[in-house]
Write a structure and sequence with these properties.
Number of strands: 19
Shape: globular
Strand content: 25-35%
Strand order of the largest sheet: 6-5-14-15-16-13-18-17
Number of helices: 12
Length: 417
């Protein structure tokens, strides 16, 4: 079986490693950029994704790369606590949750692919389109100098992101990603750690929000690298370019959060300490009812681009990768495998995408704002403990990382079944 993967992002690289683990090694990843570099800022890997990377033999390296998240806490814009819960092993999972730098995670996956599948990654070569010719899939490759060639494969997996050329071919009238009116500003800064040094927190509501978590332990100077995301709803119909690398003047973001100084963290000072701040509109894509066409299918953001709520974007792409490899290794035909993969993953990711549009687990902050916009003394006078717990558990179940269900779920590793 020969497999072509479009895109060497987290989803594409995880797919290659998963296929290798399942005994499928005749594969090539075509990536548009000429060089893979550790770009971006921080992401969270939830325990269900950490499980998959651990079963791929990357657990130790991941532990060196990331900070295990101890607690997730929600606050209102005045710093009043709304909800807090343990994360990772402290919450009963058999695997931790990690905060990591997206680019460094991508480099970890790249290095693992290069070691296990030498020569599998072809850079400067974008998949521009596909055709089916009986059982063989023709893949058009465009190099950076404008040259084109055609390669063939038995299976094509499009992991080429939110602007996927393969998805566009199947849904030509889809248009641009859907913007929800929120603008994000991301950055990292070396500052004194907050709370226990391993906590992730979110503060605010549906109008304005701030998120932060550590990407490193404190160094000899007592400083840690902190990742942050600032967010605000804009009165604008045009979100601008979908480009994570657009740098903006951080002072304007500092001014938006000027009053957000809590006893345990000074948010405007944190933003002001960043080397740079990157702007990006919060966008996703409408769920579709089909990913698979002939022997081609979509994966990761190409299949289910979702709002960065609930820390699920990269995690779901990794689970996609493990699922499709398991199905290809165990089904009696490629068509059966790809349809089983779609049946496994499309309903789940559709639920997550739509839940994220309704704020997902962050609904606890919006409820607190709607019921007590001027703040509160005790959150349980505003939102009951049972209601808060139900919101958190509902999202875990929908996204596939309820502790008991995850711990008991069979592995995707074919050799260990």
């Amino acid at each position: 079986m020969k497999v072509i993967i479009a895109g060497a992002g987290i989803g594409g690289l995880a797919t290659a490693l998963s296929l290798h683990d399942a005994g499928i090694t005749d594969l090539t990843i075509y990536e548009a950029v000429a060089e893979l570099r550790p770009l971006g800022v921080g992401i969270n890997l939830l325990p269900h994704a950490v499980r998959e990377l651990t079963e791929l033999g990357l657990g130790d390296k991941l532990a060196e790369l990331g900070v295990p998240t101890s607690t997730l806490s929600y606050y209102n814009c005045f710093g009043h606590p709304i909800w807090s819960e343990p994360r990772g092993r402290a919450a009963g999972y058999d695997w931790p949750q990690y905060s990591v730098h997206r680019g460094e995670l991508q480099m970890l996956l790249r290095d693992a692919v290069s070691e296990r599948l030498p020569g599998a990654i072809v850079l400067g070569s974008a998949v521009s389109g596909t055709n089916a010719n009986d059982e063989k899939q023709s893949v058009r490759i465009r190099t950076r100098n404008g040259e084109e060639r055609v390669e063939s494969a038995d299976v094509v997996i499009a992991a080429d992101g939110i602007h996927s050329a393969v998805r566009k071919q199947r849904y030509p009238d889809e248009g641009a990603p859907v913007w929800n009116g929120l603008m994000l500003w991301r950055g990292t800064a070396r500052v004194t750690p907050f709370l226990d040094g391993r906590s992730m927190f979110m503060a605010g509501d549906g109008r304005q929000k701030f998120v932060a978590y550590p990407l490193s332990e404190a160094d000899s100077d007592g400083l840690a690298r902190i990742n942050f995301i600032a967010e605000r709803r804009l009165d604008d119909d045009n979100p601008g370019l979908n480009d994570w690398n657009r740098t903006v003047d951080k002072q304007q973001i500092v001014d938006l959060f000027r009053e957000w100084k809590f006893d345990w963290i000074d948010i405007p000072a944190l933003i002001d300490s960043a080397d740079e701040v990157l702007e990006y509109p919060m966008v996703d894509r409408d769920p579709v009812d089909r990913w698979t066409f002939e022997r081609q299918t979509l994966l990761g953001d190409a299949a289910h681009a979702m709002y960065p709520i609930g820390s699920n974007g990269a995690s779901q792409a990794i689970i996609d990768a493990r699922t499709i490899a398991y199905r290809l290794a165990t089904a009696n035909s490629i068509e059966t495998a790809l349809q089983a993969y779609e049946n496994d993953r499309l309903p789940t990711t559709t639920r997550i995408t739509l839940s994220n549009r309704s704020l997902g687990p962050e609904r606890v902050m919006q409820l607190a704002y709607e019921r007590a916009p001027a703040g509160f003394t005790n959150i349980h006078d505003v939102v009951s403990a049972a209601e808060l717990a139900a919101i958190a558990d509902e999202y875990k179940r929908a996204a596939g990382f309820n502790p008991q269900l995850l711990n008991e779920r069979p592995t995707f590793s074919v050799s260990n079944r």
